[in-house]
Amino acid sequence: xAEPLVVEVLSEVRAQLGFITxxxxxxxxxxxxxxxxxxxxxxxxxxxxxxxxxxxLRGSGxxxxxxxxxxxxxxxxxxxxxxxGNPLLDDFFTEEYTxxxxxxxxxxxxxxxxxxxxxxxxxxxxxxxxxRVVTERTRxxxxxxxxxxxxxxxxxxFLSRCxxxxxxxxxxxxxxxxxxDAIDNRLADGFLAADRQAAxxxxxxxQRFADGAAVRDFVAAQFVAPGAGRTLARAGIDAYFSLxxxxxxxxxxxxxxxxxxxxxxxxxxxRSPLMLHVALEQIRRARGMRLADDLRMERDLVHHxxxxxxxxxxxxxxxxxxxxxKDQAPRWNPGRIEDVRPEMVAPFFASPWPAHAHPLxxxx
Length: 364
Known about the structure:
Low-confidence stretches: none
InterPro entries: ClpP/crotonase-like_dom_sf, ECH_dom, HIBYL-CoA-H
Keywords: Hydrolase
Oligomer: single chain
Largest sheet: 7 strands, mixed
Protein name: Enoyl-CoA hydratase/isomerase family protein
Pfam family, one: ECH_2
Domain Enoyl-CoA hydratase/isomerase: 18-349
Strand content: 5-15%
């Protein structure tokens, strides 16, 4: 018997709001190309629909709505497509980044319920929201350097706008943070207890609102203090991650008399040495960029991640080790942070397209 068709993006208009639920819980709502396309279609339709004053976005877990937001992009697809030269790989990144830009520039308030896992591509579809709601279950991260990638989906833009050098730390380490730290570091707007989400979601579909701003104000009025749970060693993060190079950052961390610093250095030693250097350069360049320019830079970078070094893609190797063979033993090239030379990093930042022919040339 054929497997029942699962609709991976559920959407409906109730009262004056559009409601979207990511519905791929067995994969932690990892974004497929089909999901990216459906999200784009729905959001574009609602942007011109006078009935819709605002949009609410959530994920679904195995037990039902909420519990998981989105763990990122479908890395198994990326590995398969990248290994086989499938042109859908290029479509995925072009369309995903276009979706990220759409959400950041959406004409109506978008409210993202960032409950549970919010990583990678999940950050890309939530960081542009007008209200980013977190709960005590939120675990937020950009863990791409662990799979030989860099924090894409606009990561250069939103991480570089965190206070101090938190953006560099999150980009290089891939460490996760909770609700309080997310709010403190401009990656979330307010806290709501996880068990209050369903009632608020339902209320949004039952109330009458004067306009989109009233919807946003209604949700913001439900926020409460996140309480304890802040863990970031901001002074250490700023001191170490302001150093000029990855090598100097790791050397200083390893020389420090601090359990946190040594643990951080050990984490960095597990990441792709090459992509650590690329990610640091990305964040620092993006700090002075508009979102559209950052996304164009990231589209260049991700193209090079798969095509710059044929047969030696750090990204394919990282995904292989994590999700395909699952041996947790990536063979990075170069294997050590100290062996990465500037001439290895610079080509990642050279666009393979003339400006007029760039896949994201239309983004403004």
